[in-house]
UniProtKB/TrEMBL annotation:
Residue spans of biased composition, Basic and acidic residues class: 401-438, 445-470
BP terms from Gene Ontology: methionine biosynthetic process; tetrahydrofolate interconversion
Cofactor(s), names only, from the UniProt record: FAD
Keyword NAD: no
Sorted UniProt keywords: FAD, Flavoprotein, Oxidoreductase
Pathway where it operates: Amino-acid biosynthesis; L-methionine biosynthesis via de novo pathway; One-carbon metabolism; tetrahydrofolate interconversion
Start and end residues of each stretch annotated as Disordered: 401-485
Any one GO MF annotation of this record: methylenetetrahydrofolate reductase (NADH) activity
Name recorded for this polypeptide: Methylenetetrahydrofolate reductase
Family note: Belongs to the methylenetetrahydrofolate reductase family.
Pfam families listed in its UniProt record: CdhD, MTHFR
Amino acid sequence: MEPRSHLQKVLSEGHFAVTAEIGPPKSADGEVVRKKARILKGYVDAANITDCQTAIVRMSSIASAVLVMAEGVEPVIQMTCRDRNRIGIQADLLGAAALGVKNLLCITGDHQKFGNHPEAKGVFDLDSIQLTAMVRQMRDEGKFLCGEELTGARPEFFIGAVENPFADPFEFRVKRLEKKVKAGAEFIQTQIIYNVERFKKFMEMARDLGLTEKVYILAGITPPKSFGMARYMKYFVPGLDVPDEILKRMKEAKDKREEGINIAVDIIQQVREIPGVAGVHIMAIEWEEAVPEIVKRAGLHPRPLEAEVKPAIAVEVERPEKIEVVAPPKEEEEVAEGPPKIEIPVEAVKEVFSSVRSSIESLREGINLLHDSLARLERALLGGEVVPAEVPQVEVKVEEKPVVEEKPAEEEKPAVEEKPVEEIKKEVKPEEEKPEEKPTEEEPEAKPIAEEPKAAEPKPEEKPAVEEKPAAPAGPPPEGVELGGFIGEYRPLSERAAGLPEDLYKDPGTAFIREVEIGKGEKAFKVGGTNVLPFQLFEGEMKNQPRIAMEVLDVKPENWPESLAKYFEDVFDDPAAWAKKCVETYGAEAVCVYLMGTDPNYLDLDAKHAREVVEKVVKAVDVPIVVWGAGHAEKDVEVLREVAEILGDRGAVIGPVEEANHRTLGATAMGYGLPVVATSPIDVNLAKQLNILLENIGVSLDKILMDPSIGALGYGLEYTYSVMERIRLAALYAQDEKLQVPFVCNVGREVWKTKEVGLPTDEILGDQEVRGVLMEAITSVALALAGGDLFIMRHPKAIELTKTIISALMQEN
């Protein structure tokens, strides 16, 4: 196969490749990028263009790549999952390919809390493995992720990914590499290497799996500029392994930068001897001038095939005050004198183009409307038959309401009503005679679960009966979603695996997750206490099943959809009555008081308000309590210190505790004997680091719950699952005691702020309430399968469904 890029050609011909890195500026100054490219030209085979590295806003990677190509350097654009969903990523990939970019590096991206916009919403629609698979599908199969065919040229990328040979759990890093290779990665750039011996072990494991025959591995190299930089990387950069020998060399060196270059050259010489290493990736952070010197000293200059890289054509256009338009000569004029020139003001030209553009946009809108109308008509006339669905494991129904028949919207769809009768099952009742669309690959088949999608949406003037009652902590819940149980007969694993040796399907853990007690007295409970992966009871023991706390807000919520609000709006103004209703009506086994009103970016209520709310809730209910601050490090110190005094006798949990306030809140928790929620951005090493910091000031690991900053279904759930799974594997199989603590997942807050839970009931998305219940329950169950121990949830029916599924999973298997 013809190489897709210069970098691929260098690697495929067996040359030892060299790539470097260009960090775009925090400005629109293209000359900064061009200058860096000129420094690297002739010394590297390709240059990575970072994509807002460390979550700091910088010039676009794709735009910078065009500037780099103009200087005769082949770029490798980085594409992160942090800032774009699958639509934006695929659009950018098509644009980059159209501009001539041939190399792509797929990465998940640093969490936004690292950068200069920590309040930004992380997307994480995909993770790096899913992104890699999507790019390969676009390239090799000519299909978008949704399955739709590309209508023209495919993006022909040489696909790369990254791997960290040093992150925990070390034994599983090569497995993660294998996943990326299977997804479509063709070259790998590693994290910075200082511990060469450990990297050798990683490469040995990669060779054992045959990965070095399937992917080109480029070892990451960074020259330290100073002793301070080396020390910072050793102690404060998660996932880096900097031996003391490196620190000693930098500390004793007279010329720190010269020694940094020497260290980089020494490491290059060592990794070149490791079988399977196909090149190096030099990351001279804001020190591009060091790259040529490193390459020359390492004996990697001149570069092979260097002459084949040609600069792209770059044209700079100046904007004149007036545009000269040459008119054709009249017959009586002498051509030799040249045609006359007509001066037209630029503004007039802009006006003409604006008019033309407006006309084109109007035409485009008309075409789009026509396309949508035809699509709807096609679905109505040619939609698939209503086929009998397989029996779902959990039944979710919506009770009938007479108002459904009075809705005029159902009479406005004659095309659907005229569907041939023979395509409808005879068993379907008359009020169900509405054809179901076959689910697409991205739409789960929800129709059999919600038999009557519109039944849960009452008219505004006809609210459920419970809403007409005065505020009360107890009473029957509003009508809405009904839940069934599991259907079918369960066959234990011992029966299914009869006759097989146990070592074929058993891999028991070698450590336990610590137990953390929440609350005091008869209703206290423990979480954690497992030595197996979630629900793998045939391998070991789960002493405590996952628990659920219902959320109570300190202020009336402003944006809850009716499908959720109707269960609590009679107690919105009284957190104590709200908590009591959660316990007495919905059977809550714990309550989480979310002090969102204290957020400085919201209402900025004071610590006195928080104390009054928590004090009322403590007196109203006797179940364990979690008090969750606003998530603002400085304000939470003030608020949680105030409420801790009245929580001491209840053994309540307080949080979130972050690195920025761990000393103060850690000391507060120890003073009152309270467990804490340790919150970190979704990252294995950051979670471990915060636990270490808390333990260093005296907080026992038996008093820590980890909050990994989860994402909701469709909003980074896959990445959350991946990180939680890696934490649990490190705890159980790598005996990493700093990670042997339970997880707490704030599911309700994340799910009920998503767009989908608030969209109205319609034929495509189904009933609004069923949709919200399923989103919250699916998110919770998925995170329980990843190791979640305590869930903070909102919707009573989502909690009921989650408990039903967890109870079934807890059967002996």
